[in-house]
Amino acid sequence: MDSVTPNEINDDHHEESHNPLSPSDEEGSSQMANDNREQVQVPVRKLKLQILTFNVACREATSEVVEKLFTFGDEDAPDLIVIGFQEVSAGPISRISGMVTWDSWTTLVTSNLGKRRFVRVTECRLVGIVTLIFCRRELLANLQRVQATWLRTGFWGYWGNKGAVAHHVTICGAEIALVNAHLTPQTEFLQKRLEEQAAILKLHLNGGRDGGAKSNGGGEERLLTVEQHDYSFLFGDLNFRLDSLTFDEIGKRLVKGDLASLLEHDQLLKSRKQGAAFVGWSEGDLNFAPTYKFNPNSDVYDTSSKRRAPAWTDRVLFKCCPDNFSLPGALTMELMTYRSLPFLSESDHRPVMAEFVFQAFGDEEPLVNFDKVSDLVSGTDLHFAYTVHAQIVDEDSADWVGIYPAEMNSLDEYVYYTWTPRWQDGAGDDDADWLQVMSTIPSLTVAPSTGTKFVLVYMSASRGCPLGMSNSFEVTTPMP
Predict the structure, then answer these.
(1) H/E/C letters for each residue in 96-157?
(2) I need a labelling partner for 76 at 20 to 30 A (CA). Which of 185, 196, 289, 398 fits?
(3) What is the pTM assigned to this prediction?
């Protein structure tokens, strides 16, 4: 077997090693619009999405803080969780250690959500901007594409301390844009923020190939802007401030609980009303106190010499494009919750959480289906079979099948892998929609520390996500 590991063909978690799809690379050969994708008659299903944005002000994560971030139980758990951190420590020592290990927020959040049956699908970091995407373990095979890109806006576009990380996610046929942004600070730089948000919304993400509900059949690749997705979400430390009010004036109104008069001065609300930013986007009511700037480990707003005026810098905006499908009512979305988490006082920001329910397209069959995998004894051959949709064959992707602990926390935790066949040109062009593959891993040996229950996961390099998962099977230790 080749000594190259799957990690070498997948997205690395360090910004220097990413290979995002940039507009300059793809514009000439790709279709740029969503073009009203045909709606096939499939049962609809509702999916629940939780978005959390948190500027951690270079603080290291602790188990206690991470535990407080997620308050849902089994009955009200979301299907997808997206977390946008800003100002994750990005000093020289942190940057060097980050080349060989995850930051503390990624590590502890992944461990915490793994205990709740969530799997980290991807992590992308641009200096201090970190996006984590988690999916319920049972929904992994319903993913169809996960792609990322980013935009640097710090120091005239040369440094990523400010900017955005953007993801395209297709799940159950619905195309979602998820953008974690950290814009230029300070009240007087409103125009700079407006320019940055306009550039971010023009970012292009790979939406796969046009044709059919599986979204990657024949045809040209579709580059979608953020706003052309079925559902778009932009969140983060957007740094919009309150105009024409001093620190003391804001403080007096907060003491009275007069949020309404403060919001009349909110730069983001005013810009949206004037059509200068996020036209066609929505935001929930700001029924919580300004989320910035606090004395760390305190509920008191900034008492330093700078006395930064309180503001709602941390926001979540959203947009739905119902015209993407010809069938009326195919795309619907509802904001369920929009609130801050005031009890987390470690940073000078307060986290903000939003929950949505959106409509997807039923229990569409996964693109890869495994036959039942039988239990086996460690050290013996593992025989398995799976069927692959012909569209996957046409992608000419360096795919692989990984062996994962059944209770995995992330897609990095494979214990073994094998490459899939490299398909011959035209292998998927005949009348068969599915191709059968038989495979063997000889003398499979797993360390007892990895457990005894495992699953097989088909990983697509071109789509950046799993496309199928087997039943759980047991690998037992041979009798002495």
Answers:
(1) HHCCCCCCHHHHHHHHHHHCCCEEEEEEEEECCEEEEEEEEHHHHHHEEEEEEEEEEEECCC
(2) 289
(3) 0.88
